[in-house]
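// run 5 | inverse folding | seed 20
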């Protein structure tokens, strides 16, 4: 999770859902390094990630806006690294 100044952003909620679904199945928060992790069931699937900034309060980032949703493809049970950039 990166802010507009390319610095990690702490405490932002990330909602994860399967592609084709409307409701998020998982919700995680970014840590102090701007990282987050979530285990998903093994198997070929696309997942959509988005940042949810409702209720987020950080004086350094008063006017953050979420960037576009990110689609991540998982082929089986491998680790996939991705990132979200905020505006």
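// decoded
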């Amino acid at each position: 999770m990166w802010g507009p100044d390319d610095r990690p952003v702490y405490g932002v909620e990330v909602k994860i859902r399967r592609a084709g679904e409307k409701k998020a199945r998982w919700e995680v928060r970014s840590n102090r390094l701007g990282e987050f992790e979530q285990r998903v069931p093994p198997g070929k699937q696309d997942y959509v990630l988005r940042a949810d900034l409702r209720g987020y309060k950080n004086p350094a980032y008063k006017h953050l806006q979420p960037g576009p949703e990110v689609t991540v493809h998982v082929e089986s049970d491998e680790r996939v690294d991705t990132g979200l950039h905020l505006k």
